[in-house]
Structure to design on (407 residues):
């Protein structure tokens, strides 16, 4: 059921946005996998088998993105995901990516230690960001023509309310999706917006460890 | 480095299948872009040396980024191209100053050899303007299987006082090249043409 046609990776280093130049540039990346939509051109009531078949794609894409960013998993602080479905498909086909894409990325960034110790904040006193990916992976999806741009939301991997990490990255694969294709997207960032300064919950103040705060 | 860089973006486009035909090994094309401040924005300067130096720096930096993103040895690079999108407070000649006098030599070093002309494109543009950067074989411009183009675009650039500089490097030709002409196996590699 899975037929991959193209893989598109995008990594950006942001040095500044007309403010002070960052000592360490912000790194953000996205990967788009272009595959054939097996349900193109018809209504298929049972699409769930494809969700299982996408598990391996999710794991592979998460690993590829991390490799392209040349960062260890513990450096990733934000993430997001998305889908662009070609014209002969339906939005619901894009929704198939939620589980295989989201959980593959979370597991890749997942913290493997003692959960109770982590809940007390041990082992990461400074930033509260050991990369255990507690937060929901935010997402967008749309039906679009080849080259359609999708703004993929990014939020902090451990607490959705961390204001400095609310962000979005525009992802666009020139020439895709064709009408019988889908582009599934994963995105990661290694930090806050480059000049984040609007207050709110800071990453260093995460305290609930419930994925929200 | 004299270029004031705001962002660097590196993309890799890997094609595994085209028109239902498996592409094995997949074609891989890398694109590296730098968003820089245009030191001559808003004024006419007769002398553009500053941009020429910036072009030299970016030829090395972006060429290396492409080769690194492809995960290849420099000698495995097959085709290349370059381009620039100048924000509205600049002029087309600013792109020319970056691209033509000095960018090529360090780029050729990054891909080894490179007897052929580096094909180029340039335009004035705004945020998200797309530029189709031409691609040609690095050692023989007439290799037909490697005539191609890759789209360069930065969603938030160029601002009026910025320039987007792009370099593309591939480790392959088109996915299903089959229209004859000079083949890679026939390259002499001396004059840059054949």
């Amino acid at each position: 059921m899975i037929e991959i046609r193209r893989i598109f990776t995008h990594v950006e280093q942001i040095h500044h946005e007309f403010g002070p130049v960052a000592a360490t540039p912000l790194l953000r990346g996205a990967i788009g996998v272009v595959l054939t939509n097996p349900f193109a051109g018809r209504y298929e009531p049972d699409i769930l088998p494809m969700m299982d078949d996408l598990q391996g794609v999710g794991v592979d894409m998460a690993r590829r993105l991390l490799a392209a960013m040349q960062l260890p998993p513990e450096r990733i602080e934000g993430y997001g995901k998305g889908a662009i479905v070609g014209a002969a498909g339906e939005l619901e086909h894009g929704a198939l990516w939620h589980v295989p894409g989201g959980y593959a990325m979370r597991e890749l960034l997942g913290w493997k230690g003692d959960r109770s110790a982590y809940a007390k904040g041990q082992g990461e006193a400074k930033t509260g960001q050991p990369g255990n990916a507690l937060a929901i992976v935010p997402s967008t999806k749309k039906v679009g023509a080849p080259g359609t741009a999708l703004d993929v939301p990014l939020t902090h991997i451990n607490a959705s309310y961390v204001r400095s990490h609310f962000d979005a990255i525009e992802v666009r694969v020139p020439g895709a999706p064709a009408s019988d294709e889908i582009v599934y997207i994963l995105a990661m960032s290694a930090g806050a917006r480059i000049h984040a300064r609007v207050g709110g919950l800071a990453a260093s103040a995460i305290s609930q460890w419930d994925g929200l705060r | 480095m004299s270029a004031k860089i705001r962002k660097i973006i590196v993309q890799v486009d890997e094609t595994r299948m085209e028109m239902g035909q498996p592409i094995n090994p997949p074609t891989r094309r890398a694109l590296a872009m730098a968003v820089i401040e245009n030191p001559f924005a808003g004024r006419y300067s007769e002398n553009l040396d500053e941009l020429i130096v910036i072009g030299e720096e970016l030829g090395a930096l972006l060429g290396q980024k492409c080769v690194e993103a492809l995960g290849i040895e420099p000698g495995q690079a097959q085709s290349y191209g370059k381009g620039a999108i100048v924000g509205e407070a600049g002029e087309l000649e600013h792109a020319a100053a970056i691209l033509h006098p000095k960018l090529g030599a360090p780029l050729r070093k990054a891909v080894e050899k490179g007897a052929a002309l580096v094909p180029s494109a340039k335009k004035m543009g705004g945020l998200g303007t797309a530029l189709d950067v031409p691609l040609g074989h690095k050692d023989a411009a007439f290799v037909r299987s490697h005539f191609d183009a890759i789209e360069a675009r930065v969603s938030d650039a160029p601002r009026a006082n910025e320039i987007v500089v792009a370099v593309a490097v591939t480790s392959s030709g088109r996915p299903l090249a089959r229209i004859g002409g000079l083949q890679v196996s026939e390259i002499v590699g001396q004059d840059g043409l054949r």
Notes: The longest helix of chain B spans residues 49-70. Chain B has a mean pLDDT of 96. The helical segments of chain B are 49-70, 92-99, 104-111.
